[in-house]
Every structure is written in structure tokens, then in C-alpha cells.
Amino acid sequence: MSKICSLKEAVSDIQDGQTVASVGVIGWITPDELLKGLGDRFDQGDGPRDLTFYFPCGTGDAMDIGGMDRVAKKGLMKRIVSGSYINPVHPRTGERPKLMQLIKQDAIEAYSWPIGASMQWLREVARKSPGYLTKIGIGSYIDPEQDGGKLTAKATEDLVEKVSFQGEDYLFYRSWPIHHCFIRASSADEFGNLSFEDEGLMSSALALALATKACGGTVVVQVTRQVDRYSRPAGMVRIPGDFVDKVVIVPDQVMVTDTPHDTRYLSPARLQLDTLPKIPFGADKIIGRRAYMEVPKHTLTILGFGASSDMPLVMVEDGALNEQNMHEYRFTTEHGSYGGVVMTGWQFSTNMWPEALVDGVTQFDAIDGGLCECTALAFAEFDAGGNVNVSKFGAANPGAGGFIDIAHNASKLIFTGTFTAGGLSISSEDGVLRIDQEGKNKKFVARVGHITYPVCTGVAERSQEALVITERAVFKVLEEGLELIEIAPGIDLQRDVLDQMGFVPKISPTLKTMDAWIFRDECPVTV
């Protein structure tokens, strides 16, 4: 019996109060038609109501690929647990995502879990264990002694507990059932065997299917095409049809935002670095240049979303990353793409010209095992105690993503971001930096609004090496806090650095001036 069905049939048996999970990484591998179909069913008055949604990662971009915004409806969504959230201002409407509006209105129960936990938790659900036990996240916002990952006042249930096991503290994410899951693949046969040949990622697709089936639930899949059974080599089929219940054909599903299809995300063949976009000269390029000076060769380096993901593109433009030495730099992201060039913006998460791809849960096995020795991560706030925040600040509640697991387990940490935010404007002439307009928001504060990761703890307890790199200053993180070790040429220490901080850092007795070439529009040398 064929598992191919209509969109209406695919979402017809979801009932009030059940849990629906979905794969998706921003726009990548998002089953957008399935989520839209469920939202449309609710809008048409056919229910269901009061659902719990589980998204291991932020799903969709809240714009052309709506993702989690498709089901962000009062009455439909009662609770959401997500590894990250999407919070851009829509370029055409100027609105925040519908989901973020519900969170700001305290209209739903919203929880933010680290992506490492949201991925690994699926394995525990699949094997019917009591839950996921980990030390990662202790002392951060997910710790119940902080706020337990609760984003809204309505979120009152403690989904994460702090427990003692063999005399040590752990965080425990207890298991609960998944009744339906939505996943996306490229091709399916009538039995539901799935292959991912057109996808830049696989993410949590397999883990979601296994967890849902272990709970007696229904696995629904969105694919581009139907193929004949027995027509593909077994190695191409990444999810057996035994774990699939319904398949919907969506011929026009796009690869990712602004990219209907691009083979550069699928294969290392035909390397063409001159086709990559260029980062315009400004603070981000300056930060990217200074940051890539810290990346060791022949070391697996994992990049996070934001300013840090600009770094490989800056390296290519400067000639520091080229066809001859690309194999010497080992770049990946938390989502499992290896080799090639990590992309930035809405294309972040996968790499152009990748050499290998693993699924999301396996990638966090590698991360949690400390195999990604070096990392570059963006930051929103740093405080006097050496705590970093990327998860909740100002009007943004993006969550931690994979930040906590990555930061906890890497040996070398490179944090990147502008010194201030909200209107910062800089210029440079002859390698001298000028602050034309200071940002209105300080990012170095007395105390962060959310502790995403306690960096000083990692430095003290696990001998981590950590730097904070901005367009005008570089800090080293010590056990007791931040030490200023470099400032940009042309920068006044008091006016442009110390007066823009909410605390006074230690100043190195050998304070250096950053290299002038970093601040020139055109890189004068091949680094």
C-alpha cells in the first residue's frame, strides 16, 4: 500500500492536546508545506487546539519560509519547546515574527533549550529512557537555579531538573511523548524510503522519526519527488520506510532562503571561490580578519551564527583561504556539514563545497566529545564576571542554539562581535580606525541579562583559552575576568573603550596596537 497522500490527509489525524515535532534549520530542510497545512486546517475551524510543538532548532526564517511561524496561532499553539528562535524584522512588513509576538504577549508557554540538549533528548525518547542527563549547561540560563529555559510567565512547568548522581550535579531533561513529527527529504518511494540528495543538511530528521515511532506516533514527510522502489542504492536511503507513515509530494520546495537549488552546497566538485559573496568593508570585516588570525590549521573548527560565520568569506577575499590550502582549514557548524566554506546570513548552517555530512545528533556527539577543538562564536553581551550572553537580550529571545555545547567542549574559544550595538558607524583611513557614531547599546555590561555560558568557569576549571575580538579591542578571558590586550590604531583607550563599558577590565601591561592592515579596505598582503 502506497504511503503517498495529500497534504490534507497528512495533517488530518492530529488531535487536540497532542505534541507535534518538526525538523528544520532556519530555511534549510524545513517542511514548510506541512506546517502551513496544519496552520491552515486550524484557520479553517477544523482544529486541532492546544498543541505542544517541539523544534530541535529554529525552523523557518519567518519570512518566505515561514516554518514555526506557520503554526504560531493562539489556540493552536499552547506550548513550544525549541532549540532556537527566529527574530528578524520582516524586510517588507517591518514586523517581528508571529511566534515572537506571542512570546512577547505571554500568550503561550515558551521554553528555550540548547540545541545540543534538544538533539540528544530525541535519542533518549527513542530508546524509551527516563530522559537526558548532562553536565553541559550548569550555571547557564537552562539551569533551574537560573530560569530553567523558561521564556514566558506562562511557562511554569519545570521541564529541566537539577539532580545529583554519584555525588555530582547534572541537568536532567525528562522524556515525554511525541505524537506526530514533520520531516523533509528529497525523494521517497511508495514505501516511504527517504533520500536527501538535494538537501544541504539532514539535521534531526532520523532522530525525530525514531523518537516519534517509539512513542507510537505518526511520521509525516514532505519530499520533492516520488521515485520507483528499488531504484536507489541502499546507501542513499538515510531513513527506511519502516519509520515513515505518510508522504506528501511538494515539487517546488526550495533548498533555502533565496536559493531554489544550488549544487555548491552538495558536493566538493568544481570549486569556484570567485563566485562567493564579499563582505563589505566595515566592522564585520575587521572582526573577521582579526579572528581568522587565531584559527589554527589542521584543527576542526566549528563556527556559530552571526559575526563569526563571516570569517571564512573574509579569508577567501583576503587570499588566506584558497584552493591550494583549503584542506588545511577544517570548518564545520553545529548542523553537520564538513569542509569547504561555511556560509553566513540566511545561508548559514551548511557549507559550500562540503566533503562530508552527518546528521544533527551525531554532530553533537562530536561536539560533546570535544572533537571540535576550536570555535568562533558571536556574542551579544559580556560581563565583569566573564559570562557571555547570546540567548536573551533587548527585544530578542533567540535562545542559545548550539552555543552552550560548543562553548563548553571546545579548547579554544574565539568570541566575535562589535564593541557596541544600535547605530554603530565606523570608518578607516590608512589603517587608522575612527568611530563616526557610537552604538547606543553597551555590550560589555556589569551583569548580563542571560547567562548563556560562564566563560571564566571554563577557563578556571577546564583550562579553556578564550578571546573576545571586536572592531576596536581584543580581550583575553582570565579566571577572574577580562583583560584588555589589544586596541585598534586611532582608538582612544578611555573614550572609545573604557567609557563604553559597564565595568573596568584589567589592562595588560603589554597592551598592543592591532595590525594596521586589518583596517584597510583592500587587504595589502596575502596572509
Task: Write a compact overview of the structure shown.
This protein is an alpha/beta fold.
3D architecture notes:
This protein has about 525 residues and is of the alpha/beta class. The protein has two domains: about 190 residues, Glutaconate Coenzyme A-transferase; about 240 residues, Glutaconate Coenzyme A-transferase, CATH 3.40.1080. It contains eleven helices and 34 strands. The chain has an eight-stranded mixed sheet. A seven-stranded parallel sheet has the order 4-3-2-1-8-11-14, sandwiched between helices. The chain has a four-stranded mixed sheet with strand order 12-9-10-13. Strand 18 and strand 19 form a beta hairpin. The longest helix is centred in the N-terminal third of the chain and has 12 residues. The radius of gyration is 23 Å and the shape is globular. The N and C termini lie far apart (about 60 Å).
